[in-house]
Amino acid sequence: MFRRIFIASSILLIAAFMLSACGPKATPTEVPAAAGQAANAPEASGDSTPAVTLTMWSRDSDQVLVESLVAAWNASHKNQIEVTIIPASDFVAKFGTAVAGGAAPDIIAIDLVYMPAFNAADQMTDITDMAKALPYFDKLSPSHIRLATYEDKIYALPFSAEASVLIYNKSLFKQAGLDPEKAPSNWDEIYQDAKKITALGDGNYGFYFSGGCAGCNAFTMLPLIWASGGDVLSADYSTATLTDPAVKATLEFYKKMWDEQLIPEGAKVDNGSDFFNAFQTNKIGMLGTGAFAISSLIANHPEIEYGIAPLPGQNGGTSSFAGGDEIGIPKGSKYVNEAFEFITWLYSEDVQLELYAKNSQLPVRTDLVENKYFEANPAMLTVANEMAVGRTPYSVKANELFNDYNGPWETMLQEAIFGGEVDKAINTAQENYTKILSQP
Questions:
Q1: Which residues contact 119 (CB under 8 A, 6 or more apart)?
Q2: Interval 247-291: pLDDT, tens
Q3: 186 DSSP 8-state letter
Q4: Would the pTM count as exceeding 0.90?
Q5: Which of 159, 277, 282, 168 is nearest to 216 (CA)?
Q6: CA triplet 281, 260, 291: central angle to 5 degrees?
Q7: What angle do CA 194, 281, 415 make, to 5 degrees?
Q8: pLDDT, tens digit, 9 for 90 and up, residues 5-33
Q9: Which domains does the chain have, with CATH numbers?
Q10: Are β-strands 205-207 and 165-169 bridged in parallel, bridged antiparallel, or unpaired?
Q11: Rounded to an integer, what distance in angstroms lies between the CA atom of residue 420 and that of residue 236?
């Protein structure tokens, strides 16, 4: 996340806070031989300790990545891992119940925005010393480390990375008489380009967003606010600032495109199920998305010609939501060292390149972002660069503030964009944010 709550292809993503978002199922490749050989080293040296089986939970957003990684690990290690995939929308409640009942798994991979709440509730194992001993610790995704840190202790490390960007259909740009190599760099350019694409008719629309998906729009709309110099929370995340002029401007921008029918009608009720599917119809000009879109297009729609660009501010500038998942060890695991061995293995160069980058997944080690696979696919470099400078709200109330389908964020979007009550919607959201933030 903001890998990123939304569904990309057939996969549910909590975006963003992808969202992440956060990414869809990519076609896995063969297990890299080098990773298997490196992993076998302890057994080759005469390790006689008994094998153990660890349990791992992951939200379905990362299902293919998790399954390919665990398959590679299990094929080359004595200790084995059993994976349980849980719908993203059920993960937080299910995990809380498991921890309370003493039945938590040994490893979890979960949206980074939830880590402050998990840590504050004392549900995760302190791995500070082991984490800081890693020779590449300072090269791990900084947003992930920040969200995994609570009261100066580290409770998780990066598992998957995401960043929100603008994707646009180059074929529709050409048909509309636009330069397919020139992405919009401010809101007016998005609006003017969307008008020309919609004017093509034949079911084409200039812009799309999942109007009924709270998390999707945190992942893709917050960067528009940030790039315009505004925010919805104070710098220390303790105070609501929804009355910031940039928030109103963003809502009015979307409302304008909606009112002028530059966005298909189905967007209003889309709860994320068509978040990226809509673009894959080859009928949508532009939308905010994440790195998962690239792997999905490569695997499912190589015929679609697309471009990737940073999300712009009202008058220029750019920003991004740095999302993805953390990996950590829940409190009570009997296999802390064994679990951390798996986490460490994930960061080996072979795994980061051959199981991440090769499959259009962002490496979570910043020193491996420039690699032969991304050189062949510059779009991934654009996303990686945005992740490096992206932002992520830090709050133990993130779910209530941004992801709740009935929460103040989604209610504000619905009332302002589709109902037209922009000022009223903002003031109500400001009041409700303040109430949530004031709760212990």
A1: 148, 149, 150, 153, 155
A2: 999 999 999 999 999 999 999 999 998 999 999 999 999 999 998
A3: S
A4: no
A5: 277
A6: 40
A7: 55
A8: 333 333 333 333 333 334 333 333 344 44
A9: 30-161+324-372 (3.40.190.10)
A10: unpaired
A11: 31
